[in-house]
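Q: I'm writing up a methods section and want to include an example of the input and output format. Could you take the sequence below and give the corresponding predicted structure tokens, formatted cleanly so I can copy it straight into the document?
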Amino acid sequence: MASGYTQQDIEKMAAEIESLRSQLAAKEEVVSTLESEVVELESNITNLESNITSLESNITTLETDVTKLESHISKLEYELTWLRKKLFGKMSERFISSDPDSRQLDIFGDQLSDKEREELERAAAQEQKLITTTLTTKTSRTPRKDISLENLRVEETVIDPEGINYEEYVCIGSEVTNKLAYKPAEFYVKRIIRRKFALKNQSEQQNEGKERPTILIASLPESPIHKCMAETSLLTEIIIQKYLYHIPFHRQIARFADLGVRISSSTMGDWFSQSCELLKPLYDHLRRRVLSTDYIQVDESTLPVIDNEKRRAVKGYLWVVRNPDNGEVFFHYDRGSRSEKTAMMLLHDFKGAIQSDGYQVYKRFEALDGKLMLGCWAHARRKFDEALAENKKLATEALLQIQSLYAIEREADEMGATPEQRRELRRTKAYPILVTFEKWLFENYKTLLPQSRTAKAISYTYSLFPKLSRYHLDGRYRIDNNLVENAIRPLAIGRKNYLFCGNSEAATRAAVMYSLLGSCKAAGVNPTEWLEDVLSKMYSYSKGKGNLEILLPHLWRKSQTCVK
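A: Here is the clean output for your methods example:
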């Protein structure tokens, strides 16, 4: 062949070319596979990068959450410490610092004038003197008083030596040992027998023209409740046991059963409700007397009441209004409401000074004519006492200034000051402290976080400062509302025992009884003797046979000798 290649060479070369093509195709397939894997890997890398970004975002979120939780834990630990102190620690509202140097007044900085500093130094010195006296008095041990036995019946038991021969011995005296014994309460039947008398010789009396009844029988003594088997003494016992000693009806029923008398719960409930209805006009007189004064103290307290529609106990409120001058007090229940509407209905017609805590409902009265609103320093003091663990420095400064105000009140008490003397003492000593304290509140609030306990204490006190400072205007006004809070304590004890009132009517009856028995305590009257006497008279007095108002404890006391 001209080309020099034989047919065999050409076929061989063609076979090689085919082989190379086959290898190339295989390589291309491998390349394609690798390219596909590269694309997949790139996609995986993109997904991983996205996951990394998401995880980084989650880490940031978790770090933020951890910071918030640490802050919340810190707050809860503080509140737990405060609650433990509240439950188990010594929580005296009259704060006394253990550091004798803590009363130095340079802690107030440069904002006080020299005159203001002098006023505070005098007040603090007086307070230190009073506290020292108080602490010294408390450390002296008071001997135990003997139990009073003079008004008790004495039952004597004479014991002679066993086997003594009285012919050989003569009695030369006695050794007397007194033991206080107890006899359980006793039920008895008080049987009233009214004898009937018939006129003798009726025909002769008629012939003489004399008109006389042929049959005579004495009238049945008046009973508080018509056709009620319970005598006044038993009705009194049931009421006193529940509202003075806080024993629920079901416990009284069990106790009476142990004494041999079975009384159903419905019967006891009827006796009580009818007794309350009988006493309701007296309660109304008490309300009018308290609201006719020119100075009252007001507070509210919870009273769980069964809601028949919801079939569970709901939180209700009793309002309490007290006359600080004589201690007369009444409780008011209005379907359990604590609303502004209820407060307005209760006090709308009152003219004079109203002392209350910082509950916002009372703010409405500030704008009404004829009403002067007073605050309660005890509430302000508690706020700073609660802030001691959080900010001891500022809380201590505030408590020292409040203590100075109370020291002036104790000074007035010890000297037996008249209202006019007390007013003058407040004007010259307390008012400069009030002026200084108001400036202190304003300056220090700006340095605190709004949500801290100290800031809240300062904000509470500063917002109420006009009300808090007005007590200096009249020597009759109290520095705090503690006495009306004391009047509420029986209600708090009662809640722990009978837990709730069965309905709104029961809550209203509770208001009646707490009012009358609370006024007995204020008047120094034995509540059992008062209630038994008043129950025996209420029916006839309510029919116009006597002046109902003289049965109120403070007026009743004047004609009785059963004063404690």
